[in-house]
Design a protein that fits this description.
Length: 583
């Protein structure tokens, strides 16, 4: 068990959490193939949840062959690259939290993309020094960072994998060679996409010769990707980062018709995934661990939870106006700190300990008044803060909802939470041999300065852009795993994860019920309520408290597994196409 987790576990005082369960069985699937919104999946031995049934079946196949949680996550990810190409893949990156049951140890792995060595802080400014419009910056080579996914998968497999590396690729290779049915979600996104139809070769892959998008049910074959997978399965991740494939990636980026980039063969060959200590903190009688910088996800989740534990959420009806008021205010305060202090810790001195200091969070929580919104939140003054941080400017970066989430627990109790992405839907829209390249560099601040002050998350050579991805693990007082959870969804990821944790721990819902709860919160501005859900009815009451309220579509993609004495209980977000399956 890590020293950080040991010390924090001592702070937790509760016994084992188990929110109930039935005999081990698969949950019934809705006719669409999506997870039921109300019925959690129960299992005894092992389980996988991800955003597409094909990916879950691939992961479960690895577990049934004696594979580890990492093996299952890798196999699921490779299939997601094929069947959910808009969200993640080998052209992107990922953050991974891993729990090893044998010694109760937790660690995290950073497979975040990096800026090319030639990148400059003014990368996303126009000729007049003004920030580019988001999509003007996204489409083309300028937005492409050095992909990190395969390096982080290879690194974690070397540490925790049980099955041979090439075995993990076989489900994806078979599916890419034989074809799969285009899902309703993919078909809908293709129909609404404006940039992709103009960019070859992606246009020829996703659209018919007359320009119409592929419909749901169309059988799509991707033999170039099958060949790439076969190459990497045989030769390892190095086949992606050097050689002919690397040259093809560089040529695609540097010769893009729109916004050619500056990625080099040296950038690819030099990429390394990094093992990092997770950030952990107490929440009531549990310990929560997440991903630290360059992600803002773990710190911001811990800040929100640290403030919420000053309030008796259990006594508040789930998603009542009273509860949403407190949650939104805590989120507003945490996002204010996020915008100022959080960036790649290898380039910026992030006050990690100060941001989650118990006394600091208690003082921030004291700003939340029952029944009265305080308006715009200002960043706080965390202790242990480097004096130079007084001179940072506010970040203007956007993170639009895309990304994907995988959770897995194997027969030995090892667990994974992996959040994986190519950033915007369909990434940079550039395709190389059947896979899309990321637009991850647009997660940097477009404006490198704010009122004359440098922005912590500005573009710099070889720097990793700040993320909101928040793969999360929750433990009991003895360091035993209680839950693995995470979500896609851009900058709203943090709030989706918090909502789910609160649903399970405070409101004692099963994981599927907590995932299906309407999404609510704040990202520093308005208090946001999920459109088309019961949360909309809270608008008048919240406005009466002084909240500015926005009703928005919130297509989260939360996946989660809860562990307890009776086995495993899994859930998948009904807003997408995922399922949770186990034995």
């Amino acid at each position: 068990m890590s020293s950080a987790l040991k010390s924090l576990a001592i702070l937790a005082l509760a016994a084992w959490l188990w929110p109930g369960g039935a005999q081990a069985q698969r949950a019934p699937e809705a006719p669409s193939g999506r997870a039921s919104a109300t019925v959690a999946t129960q299992a005894k031995r092992h389980m996988v949840a991800a955003a597409n049934p094909h990916a879950v079946e691939a992961g479960l196949k690895m577990l049934r062959q004696g594979g580890s949680a990492i093996d299952a996550a890798i196999a699921a990810q490779l299939v997601l690259n094929l069947v959910e190409p808009q969200s993640s893949g080998i052209g992107g990156g990922a953050f991974i939290l891993h729990y090893r049951a044998a010694d109760k140890s937790t660690t995290s792995f950073d497979g975040r993309e990096t800026a090319p060595a030639a990148a400059e802080p003014t990368r996303f400014l126009d000729a007049e020094g003004k920030p580019l419009k988001f999509l003007d910056a996204v489409v083309g080579g300028r937005s492409v960072g050095v992909p990190g996914l395969l390096r982080v998968l290879e690194k974690t497999h070397g540490l925790y994998g049980k099955l041979p590396w090439n075995t993990l690729f076989q489900p994806a290779i078979t599916l890419a060679s034989e074809g799969f049915a285009v899902s309703p979600r993919l078909a809908t996104l293709l129909a609404g996409e404006k940039a992709l139809p103009r960019v070859e070769p992606a246009s020829a892959y996703f659209y018919r010769p007359d320009g119409t998008p592929l419909p749901a049910g169309h059988r799509l074959v991707n033999r170039p990707l099958a060949e790439v997978f076969g190459l990497i399965a045989a030769d390892g991740a190095g086949a992606f980062y050097t050689g002919d494939l690397a040259r093809d990636i560089v040529a695609t980026v540097t010769h893009a018709p729109a916004n050619p980039g500056d990625l080099t063969l040296a950038d690819l060959a030099g990429y390394q995934a990094v093992e990092r200590a997770p950030v952990c903190g107490p929440y009531r009688v549990w310990v929560v661990c997440g991903m630290g910088p360059p992600s803002s996800g773990g710190l911001t989740v811990l800040q929100i939870l640290g403030m919420l534990q000053e309030f008796d959420l259990k006594a508040m009806p789930p998603l009542s106006a009273e509860a949403v008021h407190v949650m939104a205010e805590a989120m507003r305060l945490a996002y204010a700190d996020r915008g100022l202090y959080m960036a790649d810790g290898d380039f910026v001195k992030v006050p990690v300990k100060g941001l989650i200091d118990a006394g600091y969070l208690k003082s921030r929580a004291a700003l939340i008044q029952p029944g009265k919104a305080f308006g715009k939140a200002q960043p706080g003054e965390p202790p242990q803060k480097d004096a130079a941080l007084h001179d940072w400017g506010q970040d203007d970066s956007l993170e639009l909802p895309s990304t994907s989430q995988i959770v897995a627990v194997d027969g030995e109790g090892n667990a994974v939470s992996m959040t994986t992405t190519i950033e915007d839907q369909f990434g940079s829209r550039l395709m190389v041999r059947g896979f899309l390249l990321n637009n991850e560099l647009t997660d940097f601040a477009f404006s490198p300065t704010d009122q004359g002050k440098p922005v912590a998350n500005r573009v710099e050579p070889r720097k990793r852009p700040r993320s909101s991805m928040a793969p999360t693990l929750v433990f009991d007082r003895d360091g035993r795993l209680v839950m693995t959870v995470g979500s896609p969804g851009g900058s709203a990821i943090i709030n989706y994860v918090v909502k789910t944790i609160v649903g399970v721990l405070d409101w004692q819902m099963d994981i599927q019920q907590a995932i299906a709860l309407p999404n609510v919160g704040s990202r520093g501005g308005a208090t946001e309520l999920e459109k088309g859900t019961s949360a909309e009815a809270l608008k008048p009451a919240l406005e009466a408290m002084g909240h500015m309220v926005a009703v928005l579509d919130f297509t989260s993609g939360i996946q989660g597994i809860v562990l307890g004495p009776q086995g495993l209980s899994g859930g998948a977000d009904p807003r997408r196409e995922g399922v949770a399956l186990g034995d």
